[in-house]
Design goal:
Blueprint (H helix, E strand, L loop, with lengths): L7 H32 L7 H44 L2
Helix pairs in contact: 1-2
């Protein structure tokens, strides 16, 4: 049987970095959302800008939250795998 070596510290750091990236993306997307709502159509009223806003709203309200949840799940799965590996390694 082959031994598997897991650097639990690095794996925990990776999970933490995933969550930090998610938070940064979420904040940046909220900033972009506010700017789009503020400027379209108030300051920019063209067919293109209105199409941009409509497409953005669909993306922002469906695709982005789904992608963020998938990334959170990845971080959670990584944390769970580390915990299970540590548990297994102490069972002797």
């Amino acid at each position: 049987m082959a031994n598997i070596i897991i650097n639990t510290s690095a794996a925990r750091d990776d999970a933490s970095q995933i969550l930090n990236i998610i938070n940064t993306i979420t904040e940046d997307m909220a900033t972009l959302e506010a700017s789009i709502k503020k400027h379209i159509p108030e300051n920019i009223q063209t067919k293109w800008s209105e199409s941009l806003r409509d497409n953005w709203e669909k993306y922002y309200n469906s695709s982005i939250p789904a992608a963020m949840e998938e990334m959170k799940l990845s971080a959670s799965n990584l944390q769970t795998a580390v915990a299970e590996a540590e548990k297994y390694s102490t069972e002797g």
